[in-house]
Amino acid sequence: MTLDEIRATFIADLIAVAPDIDAESLRDNDHLQDDLGLDSMDFLNLVSALHKRLGLPIPEADYPRLATTAKAVAYLDQALAG
Q1: Among 9, 77, 80, 81, which residue has the fewest nearby CB atoms (within 10 Å)?
Q2: Rounded to an integer, what distance in angstroms lies between the CA atom of residue 68 and that of residue 57?
Q3: Confidence band for 3, pLDDT divided at 50, 70 and 90
Q4: Cα–Cα distance, 40 to 8 (Å, whole number)
Q5: What pLDDT was estimated at residue 82?
Q6: Residue 46's pLDDT is what?
Q7: pLDDT tens by residue, 31-69
Q8: Per the CATH hierarchy, to which homologous superfamily does domain 3-81 belong?
Q9: Could you tell me which residue, 23 or 82, shows the higher pLDDT?
Q10: What is the model's pTM?
Q11: Where are the domains positioned within the chain?
Q12: DSSP-based three-state secondary structure for 2
């Protein structure tokens, strides 16, 4: 997957679990919980959706690496490259 495809996948899953987030105004460094208001359950649903879609295990210790879109894209790119 390209970085653009990973970003699109991440945003699609993010919007699926938090439909009130406007994808058009989403900035790469917006913090999912602090800036966008995701609660812990939404965040876990996002992790689950990414795991299901990409087939990647995402250990709890790596959750901080998914805190923003930019961090998540970098993390997923590295994990997919593997």
Answers
A1: 81
A2: 18
A3: very high
A4: 22
A5: 81
A6: 98
A7: 999 999 999 999 999 999 999 999 999 999 999 999 999
A8: ACP-like (1.10.1200.10)
A9: 23
A10: 0.93
A11: 3-81
A12: coil
3-class secondary-structure state, position 31: strand
- Kindly state the average pLDDT of the residues 7-13: 97
Rounded CA-CA distance 34/80 in Å is 27
E strand or H helix that includes residue 51: helix 40-54
Q: Please give the distance of CA 1 from its chain centroid, rounded to a whole number.
A: 15
- Which token pair is 5? 């495809």
Helix (H) or strand (E) segment spanning residue 24 = none
Distance, in Å, from the CA atom of 29 to the CA atom of 69, rounded to the nearest integer, reads 6
68 φ, ψ to 5°?
-135, 165
What is d(CA 62, CA 20) in angstroms, rounded to the nearest whole number? Answer: 25
CA angle 55, 25, 32 (to 5 degrees): 50
Residue 57's contacts (CB-CB under 8 Å, 6 or more residues apart) are: 51
